[in-house]
């Protein structure tokens, strides 16, 4: 059994095909297939089910995969410890962010890290927070900026940058613009624009309305706050976001949602970060704390 065989197995399982895994690993597809076949022979079980162009993980594969990931993580940790002993920060990082993130502190922290550690390769993934948190907990990401309403899982630690309730966003001339608050019951009868399921805002909206014993289903679930705000400005409906997301839009007003569940924006990191992940977290934390 060789480490590269475990690396190939994890890549195929994560990417769903031998072709994608080979491209990601910069090796030939036949090489990936041959090495995984050797691994399966070694363990005595089929780990991947190959059916045409699709690949799925077998029951035995699901048993082996966590240990393969742990072995690879241990090797990465040894390399990171070696670098730390030498005073070197290098390697690669996988950073996740909520879609369309333009928070000044986040961008400034990222830029500061790149200036200080130009040799670190960073891949950035944008996505819904639920998926980012899951990827962080399972080791597919190193650091992530996420929104959430529930506490982060035990495998993840985080710094909360912003914690605030929901707000209804409307044009300045809207009848609700000068209101002190808007209820969930009032949202039932209007066109609501918000973010998709899996985001902190959407989770907060669902929980808040459930507590009020009403159901509000957004007519449009845009993938970024800027898209929601642009649609509100064009008169397509009322937005449900947070006041911070609407900051700087002089044409819009943000009115608190009554009895809203709070949504948090947090900088989260895995429980066993590499030296590079810790350095990035430090740079981001410094700048994000300035924004608070």
TrEMBL record:
Pfam families: HTH_1, LysR_substrate. GO terms for molecular function: DNA binding; DNA-binding transcription factor activity. It comes from the Bacteria. SUPFAM superfamilies: Periplasmic binding protein-like II, Winged helix' DNA-binding domain. GO terms for cellular component: protein-DNA complex. Keywords: Activator, DNA-binding, Transcription, Transcription regulation. InterPro entries: LysR_HTH_N, LysR_subst-bd, WH-like_DNA-bd_sf, WH_DNA-bd_sf. Residues 1-58 form the HTH lysR-type domain. PANTHER family: HTH-TYPE TRANSCRIPTIONAL REGULATOR CYNR (PTHR30346:SF28), TRANSCRIPTIONAL DUAL REGULATOR HCAR-RELATED (PTHR30346). Belongs to the LysR transcriptional regulatory family. This is HTH-type transcriptional regulator GltC. It comes from Gordonia sp. MP11Mi. The gene is gltC_2.
């Amino acid at each position: 059994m060789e480490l590269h065989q475990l690396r190939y197995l994890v890549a195929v399982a994560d990417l769903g095909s031998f072709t994608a895994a080979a491209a990601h690993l910069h090796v030939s597809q036949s090489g990936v297939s041959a090495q995984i076949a050797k691994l399966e022979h070694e363990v005595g079980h089929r780990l991947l089910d190959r059916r045409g162009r699709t690949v799925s993980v077998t029951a035995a594969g699901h048993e082996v995969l966590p240990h393969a990931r742990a072995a690879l993580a241990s090797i990465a940790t040894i390399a990171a410890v070696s670098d730390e002993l030498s005073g070197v920060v290098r390697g690669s990082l996988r950073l996740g962010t909520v879609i369309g993130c333009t928070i000044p502190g986040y961008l400034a922290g990222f830029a500061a890290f790149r200036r200080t550690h130009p040799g670190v390769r960073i891949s950035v993934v944008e996505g819904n927070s639920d998926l980012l948190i899951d990827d962080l907990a399972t080791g597919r990401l190193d650091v992530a900026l996420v929104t959430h309403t529930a506490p982060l899982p035990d495998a993840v630690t985080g710094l909360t940058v912003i914690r605030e309730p929901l707000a209804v966003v409307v044009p300045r001339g809207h009848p609700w613009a000068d209101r002190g608050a808007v209820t969930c019951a009032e949202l039932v009868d209007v066109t609501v624009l918000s973010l998709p399921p899996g985001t902190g805002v959407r989770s907060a909206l669902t929980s808040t309305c459930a507590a009020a014993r009403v159901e509000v289903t957004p007519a449009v679930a845009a993938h970024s706050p800027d898209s929601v705000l642009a649609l509100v400005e064009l008169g397509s409906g009322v937005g449900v976001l947070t006041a911070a997301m609407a900051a700087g839009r002089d044409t819009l007003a943000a009115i608190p949602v009554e009895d809203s569940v709070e949504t948090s924006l947090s900088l989260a990191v895995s429980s066993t970060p590499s030296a590079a992940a810790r350095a990035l977290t430090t740079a981001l934390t410094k700048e994000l704390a300035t924004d608070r």
